[in-house]
Write a structure and sequence with these properties.
about 60 residues, alpha+beta, two-stranded antiparallel ribbon, about 35% helix, about 15% strand
């Protein structure tokens, strides 16, 4: 499985670059990585409200 290095951490990703392991391995440093590769300078409070909603409120099928 491919991996991504960011801030001294290694993340496993699928063939499309999405975080493998789902919500069990999700963390805010992953958000920082995605923000960087997507060219987003800063995340607003509204961004963080949406970002933090999903791991808490959404149960995705495995």
């Amino acid at each position: 499985m491919p991996t991504v290095e960011h801030k001294g951490k290694t993340y496993e990703v699928d063939e499309d670059g999405f975080l493998a392991g789902g919500l069990e391995v999700w963390e805010e440093d992953w958000v920082d990585y995605v923000k960087t590769i997507e060219g987003i300078a800063e995340l607003t409070d509204e961004h963080w409200e949406c970002i933090k909603f999903f791991p808490v409120k959404v149960q995705l099928p495995k």
